[in-house]
Write a structure and sequence with these properties.
Elements: E1 10-13, E2 16-21, H1 26-41, H2 45-51, E3 56-65, E4 71-82, E5 88-95, H3 100-116, E6 123-129, H4 137-150, E7 160-164, H5 170-184, H6 208-224, E8 232-236, H7 240-251, E9 255-261, E10 264-267, H8 274-283, E11 298-299, E12 313-316, E13 335-337, H9 346-354, E14 358-360, H10 362-365, H11 368-382, H12 388-413, H13 417-436
Parallel strand pairs: 5-6, 5-7, 8-9, 8-12, 12-13, 13-14
Antiparallel strand pairs: 1-2, 3-4, 4-6, 9-10, 10-11
Helix pairs in contact: 1-3, 1-13, 2-13, 3-13, 4-5, 6-7, 6-11, 6-12, 11-12, 12-13
Bound molecules: glutamic acid (GLU).
Length: about 450
């Protein structure tokens, strides 16, 4: 089923078919999460109205000249959910299953993410409906530039600052930055983050999401009295967040027993040689095709079974809606660290909470990426670049503060970490919205 598809199958519980319907619509799920936190905080309808809905939704059609001379038109979006605490901020994904509701949900989560770690940005997200693997490099460049040109009026260092997300990378950010700078006749690196180092990227941005996830895991392990050294880990997704989390956790002495990507899931009870997997991926078109032929892991029959392995830590680092009402009851991990955005549905959350799983929610767990994006934006505006040591130190501090405020709110209100993270984020947003008041 597609990540955003709706299922209207009645949910079977205790042998009886109940008239409850589960939703796989990311935006509906995001709004359910929001409402839960609003209830804890007891916000007024006016307070909710000030922060809930996206401020601007942009939809564009992008005609591109393909290599064979034909013209293809791609649909694309940019949603600016919030500009209350600063410019809109968030990545752009290239994926065939992008939908407007998905982008709206992701933009909303960016607002919450920036607020929970207290970086001075609002939230935004963009997406192009495309499978980038079907495009040549030239076609990809033309599509990236055309997208940025189409958004030119609405983006800028003080308006909206895009970044990488699923299937976009520093090269795409370089094209974005160049397109904007050429149009404006001014070198403007702060219009986008996640750029290559050579043209204004920040040291440490490449591993920032994973680094933030690992900082959260260290704190969660402390809280739960678990030892990360020797802990077993399963990771779904072997892109930027998944692969770097694997490598950083291996360095901490954890044993990564399973990894996966679009080619399937790979398992080794004794621990997968992560360096070998990273090298294999680099040599095989950036995917793990036939990794089992190395003898370093066996291929699992069903990649979704990775989520149900008897491990200490599960890291979903791919797409939305992976743990649902259907499989949540079979998850055995003690900690789930959401390196992806929206990998658990609210119905799954309920089951996991009941079973005592400690979930580090996405808006906190993967906030390391946008935090170092903030450092990149700051460095671009200063024209002065930090050593890696400073980036790492500052990131650690921001993540620690985010984790501690969330844990404190969780204990204070007696709610799970996800609700607590939303509570922290929404409190800050509401305060900012009230201080600013209405323009007219
Ligand atoms: N796409 C990343 C995220 O979902 C990073 C966003 C950014 O750096 O602005 O958090």
């Amino acid at each position: 089923m597609s990540p955003t598809a709706k299922s209207t199958k009645p949910v079977k519980k205790n042998g009886r078919r109940k008239r409850r319907y589960m939703t796989m619509n990311a935006y509906t799920n995001a709004m359910l999460q929001f409402d839960q936190a609003v209830e804890v905080l007891g916000l007024t309808p006016d307070q909710v109205a000030m922060i809930k809905d996206p401020r601007k939704i942009i939809q564009v059609s992008l005609p591109i000249r393909m290599d064979d001379g034909s013209i293809r038109v791609f649909q694309a979006y940019r949603v600016q959910h919030s500009i209350v605490r600063g410019p809109a901020k968030g990545g752009v994904r290239f994926h065939p299953k992008v939908t407007l509701d998905e982008v709206k949900a992701l933009a909303f989560w960016m607002t919450m993410k920036c607020s929970v770690v207290n970086v001075p940005f609002g939230g935004g997200k963009g997406g192009i409906i495309v499978d980038p693997r079907t495009l040549s490099l030239g076609e990809l460049e033309r599509l990236s530039r055309r997208y940025f040109a189409a958004l030119a009026q609405d983006i800028g260092p003080d308006q909206d600052v895009p970044a990488p997300d699923v299937n976009t990378n520093p090269q795409v950010m370089a094209w974005f930055m160049d397109t904007y700078s050429m149009r404006h006749g001014a070198h403007t690196p702060a219009v986008v983050t996640g750029k290559p180092l050579e043209i204004g990227g920040s040291r440490g941005r490449d591993i920032a999401t994973a680094q933030g996830t690992v900082y959260c895991l260290v704190e969660a392990a402390k809280h739960l009295d678990m030892n990360l050294e020797g802990a077993t880990v399963a990771i779904q997704g072997f892109g930027n967040a998944g692969a770097n989390s694997a490598e950083l956790l291996r360095k901490k002495g954890a044993r990564i027993v399973a990894i996966s990507d679009i080619t399937g899931a790979y398992y080794n009870k004794k621990g997968i040689d992560i360096k070998a997997a990273v090298e294999w991926k680099a040599d095989h078109d950036v995917i793990l095709t036939d990794f089992e032929t190395t003898g370093k892991a066996e291929k699992m029959d069903n990649p979704m079974d990775l989520l149900e392995l008897p491990v200490d830590i599960l890291i979903p680092a791919a797409l939305e809606n992976q743990v649902t009402e259907e499989n949540a009851g079979r998850v055995q991990a003690k900690i789930i660290a959401e390196a992806a955005n929206g990998p658990l549905t609210p119905a799954a959350d309920q089951i996991l909470n009941k079973n005592g799983t400690f979930v580090i929610p996405d808006i906190l767990c993967n906030a390391g990426g946008v935090t170092v994006s903030y450092f990149e934006w700051v460095q671009n505006r200063m024209g002065f670049y930090w050593p890696k040591r400073k980036v790492t130190e500052e990131l650690h501090w921001f993540m620690l503060k985010g984790f501690k405020s969330t844990l404190k709110a969780s204990l204070k209100h007696d709610v799970p970490m996800r609700v607590a993270a939303f509570v922290v984020a929404i409190e800050r947003l509401t305060k900012a919205a009230e201080l600013r008041g209405l323009y007219m």
